[in-house]
Prior knowledge:
It is built from five helices and ten strands. By secondary structure, the protein is α+β, with helices and mostly antiparallel strands. Among the domains are: 117 residues, PAS domain (Beta-Lactamase); 82 residues, PAS domain (Beta-Lactamase). Strand 9 and strand 10 form a beta hairpin. It is rod-shaped. The relative contact order is 0.13.
Amino acid sequence: xxxxxxxxxxxxxxxxxxxxxxxxxxxxxxxxxxxxxxxxxxxxxxxxxxxxxxxxxxxxxxxxxxxxxxxxxxxxxxxxxxxxxxxxxxxxxxxxxxxxxxxxxxxxxxxxxxxxxxxxxxxxxxxxxxxxxxxxxxxxxxxxxxxxxxxxxxxxxxxxxxxxxxxxxxxxxxxxxxxxxxxxxxxxxxxxxxxxxxxxxxxxxxxxxxxxxxxxxxxxxxxxxxxxxxxxxxxxxxxxxxxxxxxxxxxxxxxxxxxxxxxxxxxxxxxxxxxxxxxxxxxxxxxxxxxxxxxxxxxxxxxxxxxxxxxxxxxxxxxxxx
Length: 322
């Protein structure tokens, strides 16, 4: 009887030891699975962020090139327009030099207007005082645009300035007279340049460079931190909610809230404008999140299958002892 008790007690101890052993194996399996998930979460996150960094780098470079091209295109067109105005002014000065009677009255100037297609002609003497003009606001005391009068005695003078009168932009081109000392100026409406400005403006350049599915690209003025261009045109002219102290370096990247959404931001600062891209954090790590979901499912399934298999082996081995 005593021997049977000892046997039963020994069997119970053996079962308990085996149960603890199998529990330890299962615990190790769970811990390893958790470590694999944590490592995968970190590694896929690093890879996803690196890939997004490369995509944003290329997009920002393309955007910067587009901005430079827009500026260069506008300057080229403006310079051509100014050159054309100065050529017309020189031509009118030559015609008046050959036939001074053209400025004997306003009729001659009006004819020149019709022939040359300019908006206004003004003739001033050697003192810079207007002697004849087609300007509707003509007055005997009207003088030339600032910076022209002091060149009245310069026979090779040629200069242009941009001015705004009311709602209209003009290019004023001044040249030296050929018939006498003085300055001749013409005014050319620059409405065409305003249309060109709208075409070449950087305010909508970002619309041609979308970023991922829900990301944005934007250009910010470094002076007042206002959006000069934004994928969503409603934000153009508004102050960015990105802290200015985060955008002081020549380039960089960071996570912050943009328009109320947590985003990954990458930027380049040339001292005048800040070109940046922002992608929602969920989109940056979309691949990682998908991988993690499948990994969790796989780990849970494996642990469950291992637990069932271990339980079956344990029961089969110790069924006579239980």
